[in-house]
């Protein structure tokens, strides 16, 4: 086993209490502006913005720093079309019987259905894969830890980065998503985690009237 190596931590930045409060409050207000959108414009998005946002996501903490994720950036119209066709097939099965009545009832306020035009319209689909282990060139498996937690955190950073850059996103999870391995040529052991649809909302985009829980319901202190 290799001995750990350490270096001085110089990146930390501290703020006076008042400024710290302001920054935290401002950030919360900015994040409160984020809405999941389902009407995307086809307007082009600079690829550099997607890459910088992925760079932010790649900074996320992960179990044993294994970084158990892979991101496929899809902008090719033909590939987006294939993803839409395959996803809508799964979604139709979901809405026409696979989903329990309880699940459909929970979804009702969102007004969703099996049609997913945005999978073709939006300029970018970022498909996030989770890796339960890394396959070494010699065939050995290097186990990853806290995979869902790690990939979830990285995806959260990605959504935040895209939002701060002025883009809208949709976390889309057709179920099952196995077709993504085939269409995007990813190895069998990788698990599709989410399709992150990214772009500008249309000018007439509408969002459901739903609310976040008040902090008093979700936070307690001891
Ligand atoms: N995947 C379906 C259904 C769906 C499920 C959940 I949980 C959502 O929060 C939203 C939708 C769809 O995309 O329509």
Report what the structure shows.
The chain is of the alpha+beta class. The chain is built from eight helices and six strands, in the order ααβαααβββαβαβα. The strands form two sheets. Strands 1-2-6-5 form a four-stranded antiparallel beta sheet. The termini are far apart. The mean pLDDT is 97. 3-iodo-tyrosine (IYR) binds at residues 91, 94, 107, 110, 112, 172-174. 3-iodo-tyrosine binds at residues 91, 94, 107, 110, 112, 172-174.
Sum this structure up briefly.
Helices cover 40% and strands 15% of the residues. With 222 residues, the chain is an alpha+beta fold.
Main features:
alpha+beta, 222 residues, two-stranded antiparallel sheet, 8 helices, binds 3-iodo-tyrosine
Explain the layout of strands and helices.
Blueprint: H1 17-32, H2 47-57, E1 69-74, H3 77-98, H4 101-107, H5 118-121, E2 124-130, E3 133-135, E4 141-143, H6 147-164, E5 168-172, H7 179-184, E6 191-199, H8 215-218
Antiparallel strand pairs: 1-2, 2-6, 3-4, 5-6
Helix pairs in contact: 2-6
Bound molecules: 3-iodo-tyrosine.
Low-pLDDT runs:
none
The number of E-state strands comes to: 6
- Sheet/helix structural class: alpha+beta
Order of helices and strands: HHEHHHEEEHEHEH
Mean pLDDT: 97
C-alpha termini separation: 41 Å
Helix fraction by DSSP (H/I, runs of at least 4): 25-40%
- What topology, given as strand order, has the largest sheet? 1-2-6-5
Q: Can you list the ligands bound to this structure?
A: 3-iodo-tyrosine
Tally of individual helices? 8
The coarse silhouette is: globular
How much β-strand is present in the residues? 5-15%
């Amino acid at each position: 086993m290799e001995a750990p190596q350490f270096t001085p931590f110089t990146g930390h930045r501290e703020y006076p209490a008042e400024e710290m409060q302001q920054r935290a409050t401002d950030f919360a207000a900015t994040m409160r502006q984020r809405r999941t959108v389902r009407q995307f414009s086809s307007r082009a998005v600079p690829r550099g913005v997607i890459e910088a946002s992925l760079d932010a996501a790649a900074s996320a903490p992960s179990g044993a720093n294994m970084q158990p994720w892979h991101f496929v950036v899809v902008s090719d119209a033909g590939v987006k079309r294939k993803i839409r066709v395959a996803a809508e097939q799964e979604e139709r099965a979901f809405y026409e019987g696979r989903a329990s009545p309880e699940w459909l009832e929970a979804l009702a306020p969102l007004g969703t259905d099996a049609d997913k035009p945005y999978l073709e319209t939006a300029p970018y689909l970022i498909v996030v894969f989770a890796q339960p282990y890394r396959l070494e060139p010699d065939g050995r498996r290097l186990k990853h830890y806290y995979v869902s937690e790690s990939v979830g955190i990285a995806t959260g950073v990605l959504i935040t980065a895209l939002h701060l850059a002025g883009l809208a996103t949709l976390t889309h999870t057709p179920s099952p998503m196995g077709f993504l391995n085939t269409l995007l040529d990813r190895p069998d052991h990788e698990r599709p985690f989410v399709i992150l649809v990214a772009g500008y909302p249309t000018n007439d985009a509408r969002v459901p009237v739903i609310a976040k829980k008040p902090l008093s319901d979700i936070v307690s202190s001891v």
